[in-house]
Each structure stands twice: as structure tokens, then as C-alpha cells.
Write a structure and sequence with these properties.
By secondary structure, this protein is mainly α. The protein has two domains: 44 residues, Arc Repressor Mutant, subunit A, CATH 1.10.10; 122 residues, Tetracycline Repressor, domain 2 (Orthogonal Bundle). Helix content is 71%, strand content 0%. Helix 4 crosses helix 6. The radius of gyration is 19 Å and the shape is elongated.
Length: 177
């Protein structure tokens, strides 16, 4: 018998968030509704409303999760970099995100772009930008870190629209601008 006042499905909220991320990956933000998330997560529609007061609140949590994952990847990827190899490592990371992690990158940028119109998302997007600049500023002067972060972010977004993925050398060439 379950103790009183404990959830009978403690992972439900997580399943809902992951379902929203899968839906954004498969069909974009427009595909995320309370009903579609409930179906994808295998939960009643009321559970989505119980855990999130709105679909934008759910998307905000999903966006935070995806951007946190990308930040963690960034920290791991750039560990041990120096001024001499930071551009190469960043170019390799961008290439990885454009190839092996392409779907996650598309989801990240789609959620990231919600910051253009919604303040809550803007805060998450700003934090993501700041993390890249901060990590780069650990090995480069702040102005150079800011320039490199802007170039990396903009170029990666641009590349997601292209048919062919640039090579690491081509990415590095753009970043050294």
C-alpha cells in the first residue's frame, strides 16, 4: 500500500517534459498542445494541466532543459582548452552539433527563438548566450570571447538552414574571421 500524500507516478512530470521535447523535435513548436503532449507521454490531458499551468510554461521548461543540456555539452567539450586551441575545439563542437546532434540543435534554436517575443524565454536564451561567452572568457579576453560566441551562435543557426554541413576547417575559418 502506498503512503498517503505521495504521488503514484513520480516520473509523470519528467515524461511530460520529454514528450514536449520529442514533439518539438518531430513537428516544431506548433505541434505542442496539451492533448498532443498527453498522448505522447501516455498520460491524461489533466496531468499536463496539473504539472504546467499553460503550454508556454511547459515549453519554457522544455527549452530550459534543452539549453541546459547544450551548456553541459559545451562545458565538457571545451574542458582543457587554451587560447591556442579554443577556436578549433569550438569548431569541432559546432560540427558535432550540426551532425550528430542536429535534431537537438534544431529544437534548441526553435525554443531559443521564442525569446524574440516572450520575456520568459528571452531570459533563458540570454542565459544560454552568457554561458558560451563565460566559458570562452575563461581562456580569451572578454571582448574576443563575446565576438567568438556571437560568430559561433550565428553561424551555427545559419548552417541549420543549409543542405550541406560545413567541415570543421570551414567552421574554424569562419570563426577566425
Amino acid at each position: 500500500m502506498r503512503p498517503k500524500n505521495t504521488p503514484n507516478d513520480p516520473d509523470r512530470r519528467e515524461r511530460i517534459v520529454h514528450a514536449a521535447i520529442r514533439l518539438v523535435r518531430a513537428g516544431g513548436i506548433a505541434s505542442v498542445t496539451a492533448r498532443s503532449v498527453a498522448t505522447e507521454a501516455g498520460v491524461p490531458v489533466g496531468s499536463v494541466a496539473y504539472h504546467f499551468d499553460s503550454v508556454p510554461a511547459l515549453l519554457l521548461e522544455a527549452g530550459s532543459r534543452v539549453l541546459r543540456l547544450r551548456t553541459d555539452t559545451l562545458v565538457e567539450w571545451l574542458a582543457g582548452t587554451s587560447p591556442a586551441n579554443v577556436v578549433t575545439r569550438l569548431a569541432e563542437l559546432i560540427h558535432h552539433q550540426l551532425t550528430e546532434q542536429r535534431e537537438t540543435s534544431v529544437v534548441a534554436y526553435e525554443l531559443y527563438m521564442l525569446g524574440m517575443r516572450h520575456e520568459e524565454f528571452r531570459q533563458v536564451s540570454r542565459l544560454s548566450n552568457a554561458r558560451l561567452r563565460e566559458r570562452l572568457a575563461e581562456v580569451l579576453p572578454p571582448a574576443e570571447a563575446a565576438r567568438l560566441a556571437a560568430a559561433a551562435d550565428g553561424f551555427q543557426l545559419q548552417c541549420l538552414f543549409e543542405v550541406e554541413t560545413p567541415t570543421v576547417d570551414q567552421i574554424e575559418w569562419v570563426l577566425t574571421g
